[in-house]
Design a protein that fits this description.
alpha/beta; binds adenosine-5'-diphosphate; binds magnesium ion; Rossmann fold
Length: 274
């Protein structure tokens, strides 16, 4: 069977395989058959206008109860994960960096991360000294002030600080497959560079990690090089290609591609932030 991204099922070992995924939110079908295969080490960019369904895919894959997968299959390392709870998906190595992370009042960022690492590893104890050391190094690399370790996660963080905190989680949790939902949204160019450096650093240290990088703009893809690029419209991947597709979108925007495919797609006025 050929997937829409032009890969053959069964050829090479797939790290993450999404097939014919349909998602319903509050009784309304948002995703209408998504196919996507990520092999170990690959970076896939998922692009598309606001409202095309990108965050819906991310949330559904992570197991958000509001996003019902009504059809299709999702395999991580060959295992069907759709029957698993979100925390069990995380234990298998699935990670989602949220487009709009929520604050966790009363829980310091460092303690949150320590608890998350323990939960994922299934251990009661971790080496506190090593953990601190790594946390400090990772935060320095992301140009985060040390005070963030003790501040409540995302509480009063600016947009850029939240995105860096998501990248800090990525670095500390070391997933097999990272879904990054618009890690660049609302960031100025310096912050995009810092976030990109964060992604690239983790990827260099863990070359087998797969990345699904969701973005509305091509800008971040100048820093994080995608192996494959997909365009989503109206709940489907309508076009897939290599990095050249990014440049085409950069110069032409989404209109010509969608028109050529005969897709009438009206952009939602603002990002709904999901
Ligand atoms: N929790 C939700 N409740 C109701 N509608 C939703 C929800 N999440 C997404 N949608 C709808 O699904 C469509 C796709 O949204 P979304 O996945 O956020 O797109 P994107 O991330 O590409 O901007 C939109 O019409 C949006 O209103
Ligand atoms: Mg979104």
């Amino acid at each position: 069977m050929t997937h829409s991204n032009g890969t053959l099922r069964g050829a090479g070992q797939a790290l993450f395989e999404i097939a014919d995924v349909h998602v319903t939110v509050e009784g309304r079908e948002i995703l209408r058959g998504v196919d996507l295969t990520v092999r170990p080490g690959e970076v896939h960019a998922l692009m598309g206008r606001n409202g095309s369904g990108k965050s819906t895919l991310a949330n559904a894959l992570m197991g958000h109860p509001k996003y019902v997968i009504s059809r299709g299959s999702v395999h991580l390392d060959g295992e069907d994960i759709l029957g698993l709870r979100p925390d069990d998906r995380a234990k298998r190595g699935l990670f989602l960096a949220f487009q709009n992370p929520i604050a966790i009042p009363g829980v310091g960022t460092g303690n949150f991360l320590r608890a998350a690492v323990k939960a994922l590893r299934g251990t009661e104890t971790i080496n506190a000294l090593e953990f601190r050391k790594e946390l400090t190094e990772r935060m320095q690399r992301l140009q985060m002030d040390p005070s963030f370790a003790t501040r409540a996660l995302n509480e009063g963080f600016s947009g850029g600080e939240k995105k860096r905190a998501e990248m800090l989680q990525l670095a500390m949790l070391k997933p097999r497959l990272a879904i990054l939902d618009e890690p660049d949204s609302g960031l100025d160019i310096d912050a995009v560079r810092i976030v990109s450096d964060g992604i690239n650093t983790v990827h260099e240290q863990q070359p087998d990690m797969g990345i699904l990088l969701i973005t509305h703009y091509q800008r971040i893809l100048n820093y994080v090089q995608p192996d494959r690029v997909h365009v989503m419209a109206k709940g489907r991947i309508v076009e897939s290609g290599g990095a050249e597709l990014v440049h085409q979108l950069e110069s032409e925007g989404y209109d010509p591609i969608l028109r050529r495919l005969g897709i009438e797609d009206v952009e939602e006025a603002t990002s709904n932030g999901r």
